[in-house]
Amino acid sequence: DNGIVDCRGKGLTKVPDHFPEGIQELRLEHNEITEIPPRAFVPYKRLKRIDLSNNGISKISHDAFQGLKSLTSLILYGNKIKDLPAGIFHGLISLQLLLLNANEISCIRKDTFKDLQSLNLL
């Protein structure tokens, strides 16, 4: 078990909630997911990488990524995200890579990235 769950291109319409707790990488790109619900990844404390690129995500709960202290990469490009809720990245202290390009974001709150001390590529 290499800690990777690969659900690429499976036609998923929502984030599944039955993964092994020890997973480190979650590949969910090229699906039809439209929203990320509250605390969607809370059981998966060891997650280092989440790839949600090329879905139809337009809504992300402010606490969707709560508790992911080990997360280093969050890939959200190629979606329909229009705005980022206040506090959405709160607590993501290890995050180094955040990809938000190819979305529909028109304005960003000034404190959106304030918790991301480790960020080196946006």
Automatic annotation (TrEMBL):
<dbReference type="GO" id="GO:0031012">
    <property type="term" value="C:extracellular matrix"/>
</dbReference>
<dbReference type="GO" id="GO:0005615">
    <property type="term" value="C:extracellular space"/>
</dbReference>
<keyword id="KW-0732">Signal</keyword>
<dbReference type="InterPro" id="IPR003591">
    <property type="entry name" value="Leu-rich_rpt_typical-subtyp"/>
</dbReference>
<protein>
    <submittedName>
        <fullName>Uncharacterized protein</fullName>
    </submittedName>
</protein>
<dbReference type="Pfam" id="PF13855">
    <property type="entry name" value="LRR_8"/>
</dbReference>
<keyword id="KW-0433">Leucine-rich repeat</keyword>
<dbReference type="InterPro" id="IPR050328">
    <property type="entry name" value="Dev_Immune_Receptor"/>
</dbReference>
<dbReference type="InterPro" id="IPR001611">
    <property type="entry name" value="Leu-rich_rpt"/>
</dbReference>
<keyword id="KW-0677">Repeat</keyword>
<dbReference type="InterPro" id="IPR032675">
    <property type="entry name" value="LRR_dom_sf"/>
</dbReference>
